[in-house]
Write a structure and sequence with these properties.
Layout: E1 2-4, E2 7-9, H1 57-66, H2 72-85, E3 95-98, H3 103-114, E4 120-125, H4 132-143, E5 149-152, H5 156-170, H6 175-192, E6 196-199, E7 240-241, E8 244-245, H7 246-251, H8 267-272, E9 276-279, H9 280-283, H10 288-299, H11 323-334, H12 338-348, H13 354-364, H14 373-380, H15 384-393, E10 400-403, E11 406-409
Parallel strand pairs: 3-4, 3-6, 4-5, 6-9
Antiparallel strand pairs: 1-2, 7-8, 10-11
Helix pairs in contact: 3-10, 12-13
Length: 413
């Protein structure tokens, strides 16, 4: 335990006193985002903000979105004017949409191309290990939706190594994928001289410290993980990948060329080329369930035939076999699992109730992901016993305790 801003904090910088939002059930242990290029075992996270009434920041953001104060017709006019601004950009594409064929990227790309007459190049940083349903949805997105696509697979040998290091050092097997999600679209924009990038939903609805009038993460000055210059002026060899400094990889025999895929774009290039990027959710009413129905209609998006392990839903984050272990390790480190995240989101948007959400959390949160465990352990060169022993080392003492030789939350919902 230590002190931060005169408040007691536990491991990872989380509040020592566990609380739950009185509206959506989420815990105050939920991290928002961090600069992954500085992320090591000593990194402290930024927790979701709770007010004095124990209402989380994400609930407030969603309430502001739907309380009638935003003129959505005016927001859409801004999008139309933006599309006119880039209408005459030379070349086949005037914008980029990143994604893998999920419901949100299918919605974004289709509505921009067919309603607002943009010319998007869809860009995909490949998942660690595609699921069958994920690959089908990716193909449907491109073929049924009708898009050009740039699919990039980072060197699998290097990617596996970094994923293993991320698991060992920071219990974060999804980190290499997240780094690509955040940086790759900018690099493609630079490569093909495409001036405009659309991201999906702003971070505020997920609890990040973002205001509803922020169109881009360029507007977000104090939210780690959304920097234009994630290296913060340092050399790439001084950055971290998988909780391990790049220089250490070089000392082990890798080269900077081996790691080039993970190097973010130089901010001077972003400035020189005047690359712009916006959250589409700023301009349009963004509702995940509506995005799902839209993607089914226009891109033949397929929900899973069975619920996703750790939760109750069948239509989000379906494409990567490592995904379940990302949510499982989050539950280990922060006491928040996939069912809590999913139900809190749906409660905020009025699709389920607080009481229903609580029941779903108690039934599914923290469920161990069995379905793809063989592929996951093979991918990170680890066995199940080693992984579970590692997980126990990352459990914060202010969240977990052992009873009858079983780990349990000290303060469950």
């Amino acid at each position: 335990m230590n002190m931060k801003n005169n408040k007691q904090v536990g491991r990872y910088g989380m509040p020592i006193e566990v609380k739950y939002c009185i509206k959506c059930n989420t815990t105050n242990q939920q991290p928002t985002s961090t600069n992954e290029y500085k992320h090591d075992k000593y990194t402290t996270q930024i927790p979701i903000e709770f007010d004095i009434n124990n209402v989380c920041h994400a609930c407030k953001v969603v309430e502001e979105k739907w309380n009638g104060k935003i003129d959505w017709k005016e927001r859409e006019k801004e999008l139309i004017e933006l599309s006119k601004k880039y209408k005459n950009v030379k070349g086949p594409y005037n914008c980029i949409v990143g994604g893998s064929g999920g419901k949100d990227s299918s919605f974004q790309s289709h509505v921009l191309k067919y309603k607002y007459k943009m010319r998007p190049l869809t860009v995909t940083w490949t998942p660690h290990i595609y699921t069958e349903i994920g690959w089908k949805n990716f193909q449907n997105w491109i073929h049924k939706g009708g898009f050009d696509n740039y699919l990039f697979t980072p060197n699998p040998k290097i990617h596996r190594k970094i994923t293993r290091e991320a698991t060992l050092n920071i219990l974060h097997p999804f980190q290499p994928f997240i780094m690509g999600q955040k940086t790759f679209a900018l690099k493609v924009a630079n490569m093909f001289n495409i001036p405009l990038i659309f991201y999906g939903e702003g971070g505020g609805k997920g609890g990040k410290k973002q205001l509803i009038n922020e169109k881009s993460f360029k507007d977000t000055k104090n939210q780690k993980g959304f920097e234009i210059d994630p290296l913060e002026g340092r050399k790439f060899k001084d950055a971290y990948l998988g909780g391990k400094q790049v220089q250490n990889y070089l000392d082990e025999g890798l080269t900077l060329n081996d790691l080039e895929s993970y190097k973010p774009l130089d901010p001077e290039i972003i400035s020189k080329k005047k690359l712009e990027f916006y959250y589409l959710s700023y301009f349009l009413r963004w509702t995940p369930q509506e995005n799902y129905y839209y993607s089914v209609k226009h891109a033949d998006f397929l929900a899973n035939t069975e619920r996703t392990e750790g939760t109750y839903q069948k239509y989000a984050s379906l494409d990567d076999k490592v995904d379940g272990f990302f949510f499982y390790t989050s539950y280990i480190k922060f006491g928040i699992g996939r069912a809590m995240l999913d139900s809190a989101y749906e409660i905020r948007h009025g699709h389920t109730t607080k009481e229903e959400g609580k029941a779903l959390i108690q039934k599914f949160d923290g469920e161990y992901p069995v379905k793809y465990e063989r592929e996951f352990y093979e991918y990170i060169s680890m066995n199940k016993d080693e992984f579970l022993e590692l997980c126990d080392k990352f459990r914060p003492s202010h969240i977990w305790e052992k009873k009858s030789n079983q780990w349990v939350l000290k303060k469950p919902l």
